[in-house]
Amino acid sequence: MKRFLRSLLAKYMLIIFMALILLQLTYFMLALVNIVGMNLAGHPPLDEKFSEEEVEQEWHEAASNMKNVSKEEMSEHFSKWSEKYTEASMFWIDENGKLILEKNVEEALPQEWTSTFAVEFIKERYGGDPFTVIAFVGTNKEQGFIVTEMPRSAFNPPIVDIYDKYGSLLTIGVVVIIFLFIVVSFLFFRGIRKRLLQLQEAMELRDTDGLPIEVNIMKKDEIGQLENTFNQMVTELRDSKRREKEEEQLRRELIANLSHDLRTPLTKIRAQSDSLKQEDLSTDGKNALQAIDSSIYNTARLIDNLMSYTLLSASKYTFEPKKIDIIRFVRESLATWYPSFEEANFGIDVNLAPINDAKWVVDPLWFGRILDNLFQNVLRHAKSGNYISVKTKTTEHYDVIIISDRGAGMNHPSYEKGIGIGLSIVDMMVKEMNLEWDIDSNEKGTTIRIKRSR
């Protein structure tokens, strides 16, 4: 129950309930004002309102009780009737059709009444407005008849009187209440919208860790519960981010320590391998020694890649960009790999054509590492194609270095296939130097493009 009372639904139901109460109070106040006004003006109380049947019966009874009435007595009767029914008008027509007496009559009445006029008068008044009652004087009907007329509005119920007198005020009151209800509802929903927008803004804002910012909980309604849930989510994300950083740091330290610890025994193995080369070995021994050298080389390179990847991930890899002639740099780097490609019987296609701007701002060590990783991948994984192409090209939007092979593609299984750390290093270094690159690979070969936008 306490939770419901704090809810937005309970608050809005209270607004509707208050509007209904105010509307009823408006009707009550107007009725009270009307009753007090009628009492002060001398009108009969509302519980003494009369009906058409009562008036008609009373008029007939009074007329039938009159015998040999004089003009003065009739005038006195008219006066008493007028005091009781303030809106009534009366007149007396004698047995000869002459107008003897009239009171509160506004329209002009003929002094002589014919039977034809009397019938037309009755026909005109029947069922119309004003309400008309015609009664013969006395029981023998020899003293003519008396007529009383009252507007039919005099018989209206009290609520009609209230509306007739205060209808405009009532309408204004209802309009004011509706307007207040709309204003209060607008303020109510604007407050809800404002809080939701604040929550949306908090979701869009990010702190230094890239996480949303917690919001202040002002109320304990549904939105407050949503804000509390949002804060719990942010707390969980922050804890997860912290654990991720700790695990990442532990992983980097582990890789760095392993790389360092593996270098020493690997150096000893390489030294022993070099010593064995001085000995007189059989053909099988020489082949085995050559396989050992290849494994040592691959392992050393893997250790270097692991160390480089760890340093790059931690943004601790030394970066010293400078402007170099990129075509000359690619040519010199490729020249160091020529013997390896020729030994593997690769066909080498080089077309380092002039480009729009050959002066690239890069770190020579980083770019050399990129080329070495790519050339080594071609040598290790594209032996089936025995082909490598290195070209430069200029387009409308960028200059590009293109390295292609005719191997089986990156999706083809290879016994020398690693975990892809070399390409990860290439990706990180390329992006750090504000360059772009893409790979197209299928069963007919692989093409890598390194682009520099202009």
UniProtKB/TrEMBL annotation:
Transmembrane intervals: 12-36, 166-189
PROSITE patterns: HAMP (PS50885), HIS_KIN (PS50109)
GO molecular function: ATP binding; phosphorelay sensor kinase activity
Catalytic activity from the UniProt record: ATP + protein L-histidine = ADP + protein N-phospho-L-histidine
Source organism per UniProt: Oceanobacillus limi
Keywords noted in UniProt: ATP-binding, Cell membrane, Kinase, Membrane, Nucleotide-binding, Phosphoprotein, Transferase, Transmembrane, Transmembrane helix, Two-component regulatory system
All copies of domain HAMP, residue ranges: 190-242
SMART domains for this protein: HAMP, HATPase_c, HisKA
PANTHER family assigned to the protein according to its UniProt record, in alphabetical order: SENSOR HISTIDINE KINASE CPXA
Protein name per Swiss-Prot or TrEMBL: histidine kinase
InterPro entries documented for this protein: HAMP_dom, HATPase_C_sf, HATPase_dom, His_kinase_dom, HisK_dim/P_dom, HisK_dim/P_sf, HssS/ArlS-like
One matching Pfam family: HisKA
Enzyme type, top EC level: transferase
Primary residence: membrane
Known EC number: 2.7.13.3
Keyword Cell membrane: yes
Cellular component, GO, one term: plasma membrane
